[in-house]
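Project standup — Tuesday

K.O.: blocked on the structure for the chain from last sprint. Re-posting the sequence here as requested.
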Amino acid sequence: MCPDIATIFEWGVQHKAQISNIGGVMANFAKAFVSHSSIDKPLVEQVVKAVSAARWEIDSHTFEEGNYSAGEITAALGRSDLFVLIASAHSMSSEWVKSELEIAQHLLYAGKLGGVVAFIVDGTQAEALPEWLRMRVFVRTSNPVRITNLIRSKLVELDTKRGVKPKPYVQRSKLQGEMERRIADLRLPIQAIYLSGVDGIGKRTVGTRTLEPLFPGRDVSGIDISVADGEGVLEAYRKMYFAWRRPTTAEARSVFDESAAMSRDELVEKTCELLRLIDEQRMFVWLRFDYDILDDDGNPQQDLAALLKGLTNKRPTLVICAKRLPRVAAQRRAENVGFFKVEGLTEEESARVWTFALEHLEFDDLEPQFLNFLRGEVSGHPAMIWTAAEYVASSGRAAVEANPRELMEALRGLSVSLVEGLALTSTAKKLLALFDEFNAIDPTDLLEICGGHDQEIAESVTRLVSLGLLESEGDHLRIASYFRRARFRKQFATETEEFVADARRRLVGITSSYQDEDEISFETIDVALINSIAMGKRVSDLFGERAVVGSHYLRVARSNYDRERYPDTVRFAMAALDKRHTLTNEAVVESLRLLGMASVRIGTEGAESLARAIEELNKIGTTQAARHVHFIQGFEHRWNGSYERAEAEFVEVLKFNARDVHALRELAQLLVGREEYQEAERYARDALERNPGNPFILDVLIQCLVERGKQNLPRLAADEELEDLFAQLQIADRREQSDFTNLRRAHYFAALKDFSEAMRWADAAVHRAPGKVGGYVMRAEIKLRVKTDTKLFHSVDVDIKHIQSIADESKGAKSHGALLAKLRVRYELAKGNVGAAVEQLNRAPWAHRQLRKKLAWEIGAEIVDKNLQDPDLVAFANQALAS
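H.V.: unblocked you, prediction finished:
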């Protein structure tokens, strides 16, 4: 018997599962042909066992020399999608394996084989592999867990590619011509390209399409890494090194130790040296930055400025993708960089994308009138057009034509949350939640983290990639950059919370399966570190203490703040500051901001940490730090019921940045609290323009419009803008799991004097959120106007007691003080107890002086209307009405 054996793993042969995505059907799941020596059979059997446990369908055949013809092996390879070589001294000296390699090479070049991967399981040198195979993926490991997981992930990757057809590209001739002229200008050669534009606008696509014809023979796809807010040159260097060198676990520890000991200047120098080496290998490096690449004044962060200044490569090797362009003065200082802005598609380009997308998705009979309608709803943003086209194609023409308003609302929902109305399976939702938690995941680890059926994961990944919600970056998957801020997390919270918790527990065990000689990705280490920090486990046991940097703690602090876990936010923000030497200046400011905001929310327990945040931000002295100081102080004043001081602080924030959405929203809410609706509306509209779909802003704006509309009820009932805002609020509520719609509908019907309908909506608000004051406030205000129902009217006191109880339990008694006083004053007035109303007014600790004046005027007017003769009441009325 010859020692050379090949084994076929056929995954999903019997199920012939289909993918329920638009635009194509996946007939069979991918199959792997695994070639190895019988001497390595014990290792291969472990892999086969693990593959079977992953619920793959296995059709196991052995091909022994002399028993099967080359034609039969060729046929078996022809049925396969992935060629896997278990490379060892035994297999590489075999003529039989060499024959299999030749057949695999022929099929690969003919486009009949999806991919190849080799595992070097002993001391065999990489040079022993055929050159064509070395150019692709080879991994040095004898770890059966790593081999199994990599084969599984490669098969899922092939299924994902097979389930998604390449999308047509719409040329942007003007921008590409501008880039070509700048790159070709030898009088002022550039070493880097800077592309700005909103997420999903096509920066990477435009850059790739421009560079490919200009640099034939160079790997334009190259190395692709993301640098998140709070990260700097240390993290960028580590990510780039891992993507370039693919270190083993042992080598990774050395990289962490060496880089942690470097100064900022040394890290810049090392990164520039690495870029030069990559340039020599004719590759590009794509760096994706988030918002904090620039400060409030439009200047690049110090790490980036130093990196651009220190570049030594002769060609534009580095391509930066970011949301904003630096200010003009900063661009002029960086003469070695070409700056370009990728703007939204024109109307004509948008129409072409809609046309190509619907044709690509096999949507029949696209008429010009219907195309114009679609373009009017979603245009300018290519990624959003494709996602909306998926929805249109899945709905079908008949449904779209039968109810165009429903389509319009669905498209509006997509434009806000990007998942509203999409047919996502439970597994797809779980994957979105998982990527939202960890951002980027190595596909090799994904299947083990998720558990369950590989086939289900493959289907869901295919669907999410097709929709543009997941994307590839280098050798890992990540949540699409434009989707990360879609605020969908709460939409899936109840379905995915247990799954994410289980994934966290499984993740703890994954890193323990890596041996020192196993290659390991940066994403695997990064996710493991973040997970260990969040779970309170010792991180030094994984890859050494120097692997951990302040940005890890900052990311966990930010995640806890988003999830309203404020004591944990304080703890992790302080841990980030303990590693201040690893943080960028911008990350230090963000850590202090989170520390301050969370400290306010935990009351007196956060007094010391709040003082520290304010003191250290003041010492930093930048525009951004000063803006945060005013906002935190304003938030603290509002939290403690000092509304006028809060308003003054938020006004100061706008002096630094007139577009600050949070300050605009806070000012609008404060003005609503004192019933100055016209001014509140102005701030709310400004805020909504900058943050469309935010339920808190929509709630404030609708309050303003309803209150101002009371003067003309017929116009209020027919207000189309108001109905449009209600539709947006309903979408936002579903996304955020908030309940503003019930409150605002109750408010709206009460304004129209339809009190029975108003009470129905108010009761729904109380039932859905019994621990929040909004529903009780609205219900009490409605009851104050329904004096004909004595029992209902006198139950106002019950609602007031509920509000007081919630305020006491949430440590928010001060912030609700004016609200409670207003209700008590008006309740006593409605009962005819004018003297009691005066007592309530005088008893309350008033922070809203304007609101107090308004209530005093209402009491004074009541005294005059009833012609009350009590001297004290008359004196009160005279003073109130005179002011």
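K.O.: great, moving the ticket to review. The longest strand covers residues 219-227. Confidence is low (pLDDT under 50) at residues 1-27, 55-67.
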